[in-house]
Amino acid sequence: METFAFLPVAGEKIFTITHRPETRRHPAGVLMLHAFAEEKLWTQRASALLARALADAGLPVLRFDHRGHGDSDREHHEMTLDSMLEDLDAAAAAFRAAEGVDELHLFGFRLGGALALARAAELGASSVALVNPVADGGDFLMKTLRSNLTTQMGIYGEVRKDRDTLLAEMRETGFLNIDGYHLSAACFDALWGLKAEDAAFAGPGLALSLVRREGAPADADTRAVFARLEGHAASRLETLVYPSIWGEQKVYATGDATLFDPLVAWFGGGWRGSDVS
């Protein structure tokens, strides 16, 4: 069963979806954190199908939109790192109370993975599972600027404003345009300081790198995040060939067990060091 609701947070509202299993088999629950901006759209379908796969396996799941994203309050430029963490804290508390979650597990795509790792210790999370997580906020932001440069090439046939110019304009106007999403300079600066190596949580964690071809190594960010988790005996670094999730998808993505199976196995007991059905 899926329930849609708005959760009050600091006088505003965030949109939530609770996925409840027909038969609950675990005292655990999974709180899912979405990716940032355009990457959220790319992973939207996979997020919904993963939540349903986890519910089918007997685990309650809560998904939510951060303020400034999706159906939650605020415009994108009003989002801050503090508001994202506040949303996460509120969602975790509500999920625990409403669903009787004794073991809270966190899942995140990309920037959602970075936020999950950053807050896991404070939330008392039992484990995390992170797909292509962001390891360094500054590096992530600089890479996102490539899309702006690529758009300029497509429109003008040349780059008229390089990164330095775009960043200088951000300091002047207070905002940066990334794929049509306006990010405030204050949020840019806060995200710049987000680093996996500073996280207090040290495992257990599954770091999953989606790659485009068989035999490709895990991406550098996922390896860097795993370095924070590998001290725990149950932590794992895995690669998975799943190319269609990133970028413009020419084929409508449907359920793919190659993505869901390792995550269901992890939250079903793999985080303890063994799979539990």
Describe this entry's structure for a reader.
The protein is of the alpha/beta class and 277 residues long. It folds into 2 domains: 2-136 and 196-272, Alpha/Beta hydrolase fold, catalytic domain (Rossmann fold, 3-Layer(aba) Sandwich), CATH 3.40.50; 137-193, no CATH class. It is 40% helix and 21% strand. An 8-stranded mixed sheet has the order 1-2-4-3-5-6-9-10, with helices on both faces. The chain has a two-stranded antiparallel ribbon with strand order 7-8. Helix 3 (111-123) links the parallel strand 5 (103-109) and strand 6 (127-131). Helix 2 (81-99) crosses helix 3 (111-123) and helix 4 (137-156) crosses helix 6 (185-192). It is globular and about 55 Å long.
Protein topology:
Layout: E1 2-9, E2 12-19, E3 28-33, H1 38-56, E4 61-64, H2 81-99, E5 103-109, H3 111-123, E6 127-131, H4 137-156, H5 163-173, E7 175-178, E8 181-184, H6 185-192, E9 205-211, H7 220-229, E10 236-241, H8 257-267
Parallel strand pairs: 3-4, 3-5, 5-6, 6-9, 9-10
Antiparallel strand pairs: 1-2, 2-4, 7-8
Helix pairs in contact: 1-8, 2-3, 4-6
